[in-house]
């Protein structure tokens, strides 16, 4: 069955971590708007400079940039066995646009719920490799200090992972992204999942929620 999943949640909520695991398990494509935008920053184009400014402040990247990038990646993923969207849509305009441009929308919207006091520690302790593999200094350390278990590449902190920028990202999440839970709730697609507690425990909840389907608390 072709799976079409959206995963929502606050900064540090575990979207990327669980999306990657689902990709391995289900053979679907991971479409992460944050990763697509970080690639654009690396390119150091004019567009990349606009993206960098917004990302490093913790603000949303303007729609004219993000929508085309995310949608073209999604179109390329269209032929695959399915997809998981992580970080997109991020506000009501993006969600409406996704509906307009795609006949096949999400079948389920996993909404991770994590208390704010857990998020800052998760984000400030996060380390990633250039291929986007995700670790945490305390909760998910690599086998060898500073190096990715999978490809051996150097692990670094993201430039937007400072406590100050995280506070703004959280504010933007509350204001712009949480209305999506109601938007998808009206379409019987929302599936809240308790995202606090150990990584494996949360993943098991996500997995059980996917099997059960939307509109049931996980
Ligand atoms: P994006 O990259 O999407 O960042 P985010 O939404 O802030 O989310 P994060 O990636 O920080 O967290 P995550 O939920 O993926 O958590 P993770 O699994 O890594 O976006 C970045 C920026 O790009 C935005 O601020 C914006 O500027 C721009 N942008 C992106 N999309 C956009 C869009 N659609 N429109 C406009 N602008 C856009 O986990 C975090 C850490 O916690 C890891 O270290 C992990 O190991 C650890 N962890 C995870 N789960 C647990 C657990 N249960 N227990 C302990 N540790 C855990
Ligand atoms: Mg992420």
Q: Which descriptors would you attach to this protein?
A:
single chain; 218 residues; five-stranded parallel sheet; 9 helices; 15% strand; globular; binds BIS(adenosine)-5'-pentaphosphate; binds magnesium ion
Task: Describe the 3D structure.
It is a single chain. The protein is built from 9 helices and 7 strands. It is α/β, with parallel strands linked by helices and about 220 residues long. The strands form 2 sheets. It has a 5-stranded parallel sheet with strand order 2-3-1-4-7, sandwiched between helices. The chain is globular, with a radius of gyration of 16 Å. The relative contact order is 0.18. The mean pLDDT is about 95.
Helices and strands, with pairings:
Blueprint: E1 3-8, H1 15-26, E2 29-32, H2 33-42, H3 46-57, H4 63-77, E3 82-86, H5 92-101, E4 108-113, H6 116-124, E5 126-128, E6 134-136, H7 163-177, H8 179-186, E7 190-194, H9 199-212
Parallel strand pairs: 1-3, 1-4, 2-3, 4-7
Antiparallel strand pairs: 5-6
Helix pairs in contact: 2-3, 6-7
The helix content, as a percent range, equals 40-55%
Relative strand content: 5-15%
Number of helices: 9
Mean pLDDT: 93
Q: Please identify the oligomeric state.
A: single chain
- Placed side by side, the strands forming the largest sheet appear as 2-3-1-4-7
Radius of gyration: 16 Å
Give the terminus-to-terminus CA distance: 22 Å
Which sheet architecture does the biggest sheet show? Answer: 5 strands, parallel
Bound molecules: BIS(adenosine)-5'-pentaphosphate, magnesium ion
Low-confidence stretches: none
> What structural class results from the helix and strand content?
alpha/beta
Number of strands: 7
Large-scale geometry? globular
Task: Give me the strand/helix succession.
Answer: EHEHHHEHEHEEHHEH
